[in-house]
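Work Package 3 (structural annotation) set out to generate three-dimensional models for the target panel prioritized at the project kickoff. During this period the team completed the workflow that converts sequence records into discrete structure tokens, so that structures can be stored uniformly alongside our sequence database. As a representative example, we reproduce one entry of 178 residues exactly as it appears in the project archive.
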Amino acid sequence: MRKALCALLALALCFGAASAEIALAPAGTFSDYAFFVDGSARVIDADEDYREGLFDIAGNAIIPCEYEALSGYGATGYFVAQREEGLNVRGALDAAGNVVIPFQYGDIRFLSERWALGVMLEETSIRPCDYEDYIDGKNYNAVSYDVYDLSGPGYVGYFTHQGCEVIRAHGDYLYVQN
């Protein structure tokens, strides 16, 4: 009896889903360069000058094409952006294009949806190093880690590279191993 009820329920669910209408909407026109941001219907695309921006699926600009590089951080709605070539020129934007971490870092690390680090870098000739750039062949070390609370006041403090081995986020807390 139980198996029959489960089978009838599954059949009813299938017919209900099959009778629902599916509507398709036209997508915007994008270049061959365009790619979807992970887990969302947003698209990063570039203009004719190869400046990157963020668009919804209909092709409407959310973040204008004014960045040298723009990359998504999963489906959480934060983006690492770079306005120009160079060292310590990256920052972070929210999904509306507002600056949440200023453009003064060599790397941005998102520890969670709440916590992020702005990593200040300096060039080094010492190996091993913290960062290797395979394009220009240069090596970099982290000088400091600036901590940002993305759900609150923004900048909350920093750690030096020597005073910080590991930083992990867990809910409202950051765990730091010295």
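The longest strand covers residues 139-149.
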